[in-house]
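Project channel, design review

CF: Before we commit to the Lates japonicus constructs, I'd like one complete example in the thread so the newer folks can see what an input/output pair looks like. Taking Troponin I, slow skeletal muscle-like protein.
RD: sounds good, go ahead.
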Amino acid sequence: MLKSLMVAKAKEELEQEVIVKEEEKQRYLAERAPPLNTSGLSLAQLQDLCRELHAKIDVVDEERYDIEAKVMLNTREIKDLNIKVLDLRGKFKRPNLRRVRVSADAILRSLLGSKHKVSMDLRANLKSVKKEDTEKKRPVEDSDWRKNVEAMSGMEGRKKMFDAAKGPAQ
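CF: and here is what came back for Troponin I, slow skeletal muscle-like protein:
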């Protein structure tokens, strides 16, 4: 619904713009080319009027030709510059960007410069874990797992699994 309202509004504005442009064109033509009054003029006066009109036409044609030449020159320059840009893009390969680890302090220092005094040590607030406890538990888990696999292999292991499944259900 919003899209249809926007399209309708744009259509109305476009119609108004066309009407305004037409009115401006009529006003401009009324100023620049007043209607000719040829009734009651002699042959000599008509010839003078024609000469004046031809002189004005020549001036307008010269201006139009100059403007067209400027436009052609500008379009040619734009095409040449576009070709140069495309050539330069083709010659240089963009390097693969690498991820860089930068600490929050380094980012703040680069942004704020020497004004940065607050340290953002985020690791200070983390809970510390003892490494000894984790190392002791790991070998035990590995050995238990291996024993389990050996114990459960073959028909005896399947029977144990079946019995274990029955046991808690009872």
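RD: helpful, thanks. Helices lie at 2-32, 43-91, 104-112, 131-152, 154-169.
CF: The mean pLDDT is 79.
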